[in-house]
Structure formats: C-alpha cells, structure tokens
Design brief:
Length: 590
C-alpha cells in the first residue's frame, strides 16, 4: 500500500484501538525504539561530528585575530630584545606596572644612532624629550604567534578597534543568518539545509585564509557567522527529532559536551599551527570530510510527516526498527501506512505570535526579564571565552581551562536547579558570578585572576543552562517558539558587544571582568521578579501565561528560600543553545 497517497480521511478501516494508540509520532517511537542502536549510531557517528563547525568557528578567530602580549614601535636599530625596550622607548604605567610604551616613541632620529647612543640619550634627556606616535609601524613578539591578522595589518594602538570589529563581525552575521537557514531547513528539509549551510560556511572559511585586507576578512567572517550558531541548533534539533522529547535532556547534554569537545580539538590544532593563514585552513579544510556523511545523514522523520511524505517516512520507520532489532507487532506492521496517514501532522503548531507576548503587562514583564537574563548570560559567557586567551599568560592553556570548566555544569545543572528552583538557581549563581568578577578589581593578575575568572565561567555556564529551561517553562505553549526566537536575537546583540568590552582590558586588565560583574548582579536582581516554575503546572495558553505569577507579593520577590519538593515530581532540564518546541513536527524559528 502506498502511504504517500493517504491522508487521515483515508483511514476508516483502521482499528480504533490502533488509531488511538498511535496518535502521534512519539507513540511510533515507543514501538520501534526511541533511543536504540540506530539512534545511537546516528547521534555519535553523524550528528555529533556535524556540530563540530560550531565549536571551530566560534573559537578559531580567538587565535587568528589575537594580539600578542608584547609589541612596540618599529625602530631602525638592529638586535633589539624586549629587555632593551624600556631603555629605548618612553615609559608608561600599565596595570600597575611601569613598562615601555606600545604606541609612542621618542622624537629622535633613531636611524643615525646606535642602540647604546639611544639609551644614553634617553637616560640623560628623558624628562625633556618629546614623544610621537609610532612612525614606521610596529614590531611584535612572535614567541606565541607566528602571525595573526593583528600583526599582519597592524591593528593596534589607534587601529585597535578594527581588530575588535573583526571579532564582532562573526556574531553580527548570526543576527540574520539563522533566520535564512531556518527557512531553508523548514522549506527544503533538515538534510539539504545542513549541507547547503556547511558548503556556504566552508567556502568563506577557506576564502578567509587568503583575505587581501581587513575589509575582506570581516566580510568573510560575517558570512561564516551567519551559519555558526545554527549549525548547533540544527544538530540538536535533529537529535531530538529522531529520538523524541523523552530524551531531550540527554540530547542537550550530549550535544553540549560535543560542542565543548570540538573546541578542545580546535585548541589542539591551534597549539601546533601558529600562523593565522595556515590555521584558517587547518580549521576548515578537514571539515570537508563532513560531506562523506551525506549518505548516512537522515532526513528528519517529523519533517517528513509535516510535509506529508509518508512513503519516505514508512521506509525510515522500518529501517529504524530493523537496525534496533525490534520485531514489529503484526498488526502494526500490516497497518503501518494507515497508521502514518492517521498521525496528526500539526499537533503542536503554534497559534500565536511574538506580538502576543507584549499585549498584556505580566507576560510582557516576564518576556523582557527573560530576554535580559539571556542577554547577560550570552554576553558574559562569550566575553569570558574571549578574555581568557586574550589576557592570560599562556593563551592556549587559558583557553583550555576556560572550556574544561564547562563540563561539570553540563552534568550537574539539573540537580542544582531542581533543588534550588529555577529562580534561585539563576539568582545565586549570577550573584556568585558577579562576586567573582568584581573581586578581581583588587587584583593585578596572576593565578588568583585566573581562578576567579574560571569560577565566574563555571557559574555563568550553569545560569545559561537554567535560563533556557526557565524560558521553556515560562512561555505559554502557543507562543514558546516565538519567545525563544526573541530572546535568542536579543542575546546576539550581547555577542556583538562582548568583544568591545573585552577590548577594555588593554587599558585596564580587569575592567572587562568588572563590567561583566556589574551586568551579572543586575541580571541576578531581575530574576527575583520572576515566578517560580518548578513543581508548577506550566502555562499552555496566553491567558495562562498572563495569570501565572501575576500577583507576586514583595515577600515572595525577596524570598531566598528554595521551594519545597513534592513527593512525586519529574522534571527535565532543557539544554542551552536550542530553540525548540516540546513536540514535533518542529519548526525552526531562528
């Protein structure tokens, strides 16, 4: 029987018991195995490798556009070492120390003087010598980086902001790129959407290695950034669509670990490849191997169902059952075409839109608070990722530590937010993050600064995870996808601004951490005005969303006591970086 020609109107002969049992695709998964051999093979051998570009292109710019710790005005003098610079250049105070100037030089005719003559002149006339900006560019310490975009195009001193713009260009592309790829994935399928996106991204990633100037480089990075975040979203989406909502928490944890592992793999490449041209190629060309996954990359069964491509869905269902070694019930096997035609294709389709979130005061308040919390989390999380390698003594080691600290929250955030509740989990860990950041104001560097920044990263990773769950439970079902889209777009602006905040560290080392600390403490305060959702019946309609937590008393707002756990409750943590509904067929909303 050809199931592609069937519709729900064609199933009068289907036994009512079978029709009621298999009313949605999750019931089909229960029959064929929701997380069996097939799903595990696809997850670990196809989907996890498919999200590697997300980690690579989120982080490779950190090393491609890094600024060496030491640079100085280029002088026409031979055999200059870093230890000679304080005797040849003006001195300035930087981070509590007296060091040579990076951007100024004495108004001397260096070409006609030897190194010793310059040092003698500076020692004798230091108080009266005039200073000028660097005349012939800069020299850089190449002990860590052979070359970066900063050293090649001289993006320091008065051109320092241009380097920051190159960082922001990637995130800027994500402001609108996700909507484009979401439309393609919804219109043409997840498989075509993914591989067309990867082809687009790799084209510009490889081209960036041959950028003739900064403008071309920023344009290439913007095109790369159009795809970066959505690579992860689509990978997580596929993992949930092939396994079902029961494993959403597990899929989130696995994909998050996959993302961080891809960053660690990139760090290994960065350690051995120190030239930015070669590094751009080394972090891109190997990803061409992803196209070998095409024969194994499945189309989303929920997308096939939503498109009415029931024959392909039937082939998929039988394949999953076969690989999972499931012996199908004869009635299910015989009636499978009719069962698929009977499934509700749009069971959880949203009936409201973004505007509905702002029509009523309480729902508007909660939407804006959640957006601001997401803004704080995204900005601080991104900023700490950029800060560690930029100002750590060993950038590769600092980057390794700041990513390794993400693993514990992936595993324990569920237990934390169940014990404290969503609201207090956000409050306490955003507060701890702000404390760790603000304490650095009295530190000039060293191990203490590293430990405090890692502690802040640990806390903000937990709040990132919990905030995504809080959104899932606070937005009404009928407008949940639109709510996720709104907070996601708001968070992208934080990602654009984070490099500019990190750049403040060039003037005062801990200033970025102080800014992050102030932002985090404000975010912590706003969470207190949100109603607790743990152990509560969640809102389904817009009226439910408006009434939920509408009349909070001040005693409730200032209460810092965790909610009491009912005797029998089951909750699941939704992972971050996703923008999904509870049930399929999923629609990607950027």
């Amino acid at each position: 029987m050809d199931s592609s020609a069937l519709t729900p109107n064609d199933v009068p002969s289907l036994d009512p018991g079978i029709r009621d049992k298999f009313h949605n695709y999750d019931a089909i998964l229960d029959e064929i195995g929701g997380f069996g051999i097939y799903q595990k093979l696809i997850l670990f051998l196809v989907l996890i490798p498919a999200i590697i570009p997300n980690g690579f292109y989120n982080y490779n710019i950190v090393f491609m556009s890094a600024t060496p710790a030491e640079y100085w005005c280029r002088l026409p003098v031979d055999n200059i070492s870093i230890s000679d610079l304080p005797h040849l250049l003006p001195l300035e105070q930087r981070n509590g120390e007296i060091v040579h100037s990076r951007c100024m030089m004495f108004d001397l005719n260096y070409a006609n003087l030897t190194k010793q003559e310059i040092a003698n002149t500076v020692r004798i006339y230091n108080g009266t010598l005039s200073v000028v900006p660097c005349r012939s560019g800069w020299d850089f310490d190449h002990s860590v980086y052979e070359s970066t975009t900063v050293t090649e195009w001289g993006l320091v001193c008065d051109k320092e902001v241009l380097s920051t713009i190159s960082f922001a260009s990637s995130t800027f592309g994500g402001l609108f790129g996700a909507f484009i790829w979401a439309f393609i994935a919804d219109r043409f399928g997840r498989k075509k959407g993914y591989f067309s996106m990867i082809a687009f991204q790799l084209t510009f990633a490889i081209a960036s290695a041959f950028s003739p100037n900064l403008l071309a480089y920023c344009m290439f990075r913007m095109c790369i950034g159009m795809c970066t975040s959505f690579v992860y979203t689509l990978g997580l989406l596929m993992s949930i669509e092939i396994t079902g909502t029961k494993t959403r928490a597990l899929m989130s944890v696995i994909c998050s670990i996959g993302y961080t592992s891809s960053v660690l793999l990139l760090l290994l490449i960065a350690y051995f490849v120190r030239d930015w041209h070669h590094f751009a190629l080394a972090s891109s060309v190997p990803l061409l191997s992803l196209f070998f996954l095409i024969p194994f990359f499945p189309e989303s069964p929920r997308w096939l169902l939503a498109q009415g491509r029931l024959k392909e869905l039937e082939v998929y269902v039988r394949k999953v059952a076969r690989v999972n070694r499931v012996q199908l019930d004869p009635k299910f096997d015989q009636n499978l075409p009719l069962i698929l035609a009977n499934l509700d294709r749009h069971e959880d389709e949203e009936t409201a839109n973004l505007v509905d979130l702002f029509r009523t005061p309480n729902l508007r308040k909660k939407t804006l608070i959640l957006a601001f919390i997401n803004f704080c989390n995204s900005g601080i999380f991104t900023g700490l990722n950029l800060y560690a390698p930029a100002f750590g003594g060993n950038p590769h080691w600092s980057a390794f530590l700041t990513n390794m600290v993400e693993f514990p929250p992936y595993l324990f955030a569920q237990q934390i937010c169940d014990r404290l509740g969503r609201r207090l989990s956000l409050f306490y860990f955003m507060l701890f993050c702000s404390i760790f950041c603000l304490v650095t104001a009295g530190i000039t560097g060293g191990t203490a600064l590293t430990v405090l920044s890692l502690a802040a990263k640990f806390c903000i990773t937990i709040t990132f995870l919990v905030a995504e769950l809080y959104e899932e439970e606070s937005f009404p079902t009928v407008v949940r996808g639109a709510g996720h889209s709104f907070t996601s777009v708001v968070s992208q602006f934080a990602g654009v601004g984070a490099p500019f905040v990190v750049n403040l560290g060039n003037a005062f080392l801990v200033l970025p951490l102080v800014v992050f600390g102030c932002l985090s403490v404000v975010g912590a305060g706003t969470t207190l005005f949100m109603p607790e959702t743990v152990y509560k019946q969640l809102p389904q309609t817009l009226d439910d969303g408006e009434n939920f937590g509408k009349h909070m008393r001040w005693s409730t707002i200032v209460s810092l006591v965790p909610p009491k756990r009912p005797k029998k409750t089951r909750v699941q943590l939704v992972g971050f970086k996703a923008n999904l509904k509870e049930e399929g067929p999923y629609t990607i909303t950027g």
